[in-house]
Amino acid sequence: MVWILKPHKEGLPGLVLHCAMHCYRIGKPNDPVTLGTPHGFWFEYLGLQSSGHGSQEPITISFMDKETPIAKGLNDWTTVNEELYNNVHIFDTARAVAHGQQTTRPKTGAAKTNDFVVVWVNEYGAKKTRVFSTTIGHINATVEDPRYLDLVTRGVLWATGHLKKDGTPANGYGPGGK
Predict the structure, then answer these.
(1) For residue 2, which of 29, 32, 42 has the smallest C-alpha distance?
(2) What does DSSP say about strands 112-124 and 14-17: parallel, antiparallel, or unpaired?
(3) Contact 50, 85 (CB under 8 A)
(4) CA-to-CA distance for 153 and 33, rounded, in angstroms?
(5) How many Å is the maximal CA-CA distance in the chain?
(6) Are 124 and 14 spatial neighbours (Cβ–Cβ below 8 Å)?
(7) Regarding predicted confidence, which is higher, 106 or 96?
(8) Structural domains counted in the chain
(9) How wide is the angle at C-alpha 128 spanned by C-alphas 91 and 10, nearest 5°?
(10) Which structural domain, as residue segments, surrounds residue 65?
(11) What is the CATH number of the domain that holds 38?
(12) Which tops the pLDDT comparison, 15 or 30?
């Protein structure tokens, strides 16, 4: 695992989408993380510990602070049927960009609504490497959605230091290189 994170410890920005949240976990994902241990390495990089997701139902995406560069000008929306990943622990180095609410209707019992962070940024390690993450994006219709593509584009620009405070790309990083 250490070799996977080495470039990011050295300052290489990161982008983590959907299923990647659960790729490099060690140990039991529900167990509390102890910083600096193999069980905690991946979650420290992400800035958020997740252990699983529920069934596929629409997720209502709500941006927390619409004045942050990533969210500036973006509107809340509801996805098609998607997987809402849980949040076991959110680290102090991470900052939520958007929450997702999903109501599930089990075959027995009442409907249940979960609310978890679905988009966040993290400053990883001593160099405070920028990492942008989102757990939405399981379904092709979501990944093809211009709202999702705009969000991920802004995340990449933020992580690489090419997103201005007003939410627009730095010179040379906009459509057509403008």
Answers:
(1) 42
(2) unpaired
(3) yes
(4) 30
(5) 55
(6) yes
(7) 96
(8) 1
(9) 120
(10) 13-162
(11) 3.40.50.880
(12) 15
**Is 70 contained in some domain?**
yes
Q: Is 21 left (phi over 0), alpha (psi -120 to 50) or beta?
A: alpha
Q: 136 burial class (0-12, 13-18, 19+ CB within 10 angstroms)?
A: buried
Neighbours of 104 (CB within 10 A): 14
Alpha carbon separation from 4 to 7, 41, 67, 72, 139 (Å, rounded): 7, 10, 33, 32, 26
174 occurs within a structural domain: no
Run of H or E including 38:
helix 38-46
Q: Does residue 2 form part of some domain?
A: no
pLDDT score, position 22 = 87
Is 28 within the bounds of a domain? yes
**What CA–CA distance (Å, rounded) separates 54 from 59?**
11
Instruction: Determine contact, residues 97/66, Cβ cutoff 8 Å.
Output: no
Q: CB atoms < 10 A from the CB of 87, how many?
A: 20
Q: Cα separation of 49 and 85, whole Å? A: 10
Q: What's the whole-model pTM score?
A: 0.94
